[in-house]
Design goal:
This protein is mainly alpha-helical. Helix content is about 50%, strand content about 0%.
Length: about 200
């Protein structure tokens, strides 16, 4: 792996010689995400990551999007046994029947949340961090915590709502990725850049 140089180098986990993974760090990781459907997709992909590396999922992400109808929750919620069997034959994704069935159940749980209030899935999730990113001091990515009180609370509520493969460790990785937690290393120029993209929560 190519080493980073300079005080303003990106996070040390972002390899310079892996274009896909590096672009993910530079363009996506830690950017505050407020779109309901985009948050749903990321949460489902993080569920498929359980027991695997994110690199494995990232390299298969386009295959997942094609196989799961662009992560359209209305379509996923109606998947039939025949569709599940087709997914189990798709070598481009992670062929786990347990995780596929969890994704279907999660789509139904997502739709229930979308119908339960005007804040939608995004508002529901962001409420766990008070509507704005938690910014941590991180000198090296190995200092990252693997869960937090916020991820434990979110995981507990997601489980109560019917979600699966959403434990506090998975949820914390999700929160890092979608900008609810800013865990870019302190020297990384993306730390300040993504923070500027955060919305200010409404104070009432």
């Amino acid at each position: 792996m190519t080493k980073h140089d300079g005080a303003k180098a990106p996070c040390l986990w972002a390899p310079l010689d892996d274009e896909i993974y590096r672009n993910y760090h530079d363009a996506e990781w830690g950017v505050p995400e407020y779109d309901d459907r985009a948050l749903f997709e990321k949460l489902i992909l993080d569920g498929f990551q359980a027991g695997l590396s994110w690199r494995t999922i990232l390299y298969k992400r386009d295959n997942f999007r094609k196989a799961f109808d662009g992560f359209n929750p209305e379509k996923i919620a109606r998947y039939t046994p025949r569709k599940i069997e087709r997914l189990m034959q798709d070598k481009g994704i992670i062929r786990s029947e347990t995780k596929i069935n969890a994704a279907i159940g999660n789509a139904r749980a997502y739709l229930d949340i979308m119908e339960s209030g005007p804040e939608g899935f995004s508002g529901f999730l962001w409420e766990f961090v008070g509507g704005e990113p938690i910014v941590n001091k991180v000198k090296h990515y190995r200092e990252h915590q693997v869960k937090s009180p916020e991820s434990e609370a979110m995981a507990k509520e997601l489980k109560r709502r019917g979600f699966k493969f959403c434990g506090p460790v998975i949820v914390y990785a999700f929160m890092q990725a979608v900008g609810m937690v800013n865990d870019h290393e302190d020297h990384c120029p993306r730390k300040a850049a993504v923070q500027k993209l955060a919305r200010k929560p409404a104070r009432g």
